[in-house]
Design a protein that fits this description.
The complex is a heterodimer of chains A (about 110) and B (about 120).
Chain A lengths: L3 E4 L2 E4 L5 E7 L7 E6 L6 E5 L3 E2 L7 E6 L2 E6 L9 E6 L12 E5 L1
Parallel strand pairs in A: 2-10
Antiparallel strand pairs in A: 1-3, 3-8, 4-5, 4-9, 5-6, 7-8, 9-10
Chain B lengths: L2 E4 L3 E3 L5 E8 L7 E7 L6 E7 L4 E4 L7 E6 L4 E6 L8 E8 L8 E2 L3 E5 L2
The chains are: A mainly beta (about 110), B mainly beta (about 120).
Chain lengths: ~110, ~120
């Protein structure tokens, strides 16, 4: 089973700054990786699929990159609603649909 | 726009079973795959299982194999997740989520159903 490791566990960022989140897979995923946002008390929301394709309605300040085993989610010019927990999920070796443990982006 | 509406919160005793429903609107279960993801208090997301279009049947995480059953009624567009032999470790919010056939990322999510297991 593929293991997904996200870093850092917590990222403290000031509003207006950028945030870079990392996700590493224990085996190559090609580009079969998705990112989700979960605001406090809310349902997860798909941000990115195919490692770099934004889902419908997702603002351009969210961008995904990477392939193989190393992936990055970049959030430029953080807004108040972006402070949340972010999860990566692999779907290359499915089942199972393995999630990372999450990165919490908090206000600095 | 696909919408998923789940059944309400449940409180169960250890050893009991629970069945959570997920009503799909805006599309049909014949066009979507339904998956179930759960989140224990303060924890991350755990994929439980979902419909595998290649296999033509539901597949489950090994951890829950034998205790979980996922079904779908295409006449009503309602999906169900049943979990048996509940323990306190099963206390979590349970989400249904959709994926396009053969694309196993989750684009629409239900609102979540709290299942509490307590004696």
């Amino acid at each position: 089973e593929i293991v997904m490791t996200q870093s850092p566990a917590t990222l403290s960022v000031s509003p207006g700054e950028s945030a870079t989140l990392s996700c590493r897979a224990s085996q190559s995923l090609s580009n079969n990786l998705a990112w989700y946002q979960q605001r406090p008390g809310q349902t997860p929301r798909l941000l990115i699929y195919g490692a770099s394709t934004r889902a419908s309605g997702i603002p351009a300040r969210f961008s995904g990159s990477g392939s193989g085993t190393e992936f990055t989610l970049t959030i430029s010019s953080l807004q108040s609603e972006d402070f949340a927990v972010y999860y990566c999920q692999q779907y290359n070796n499915w089942p199972p649909g393995t999630f990372g443990q999450g990165t919490k982006v908090e206000i600095k | 726009q696909v919408q998923l509406v789940q059944s309400g919160a449940e409180v169960k005793k250890p050893g009991a079973s629970v069945k959570v429903s997920c009503k799909v609107s805006g599309d049909t279960l014949t066009e979507l795959s339904i998956h179930w993801v759960r989140q224990a208090p303060g924890e991350g997301l755990e994929w439980m299982g979902g419909f595998d279009h290649e296999a033509g049947e539901a597949v489950y995480t090994q951890k829950l194999e034998g205790r979980v059953t996922m079904t779908a009624d295409t006449s009503t567009d309602i999906a169900y997740m049943a979990l048996s032999s509940l323990t306190s470790d099963d206390t979590a919010v349970y989400y249904c989520a959709t994926s396009a056939p053969f694309m196993y990322y989750f684009d629409y999510w239900g609102q979540g159903t709290q299942v509490t297991v307590s004696s």
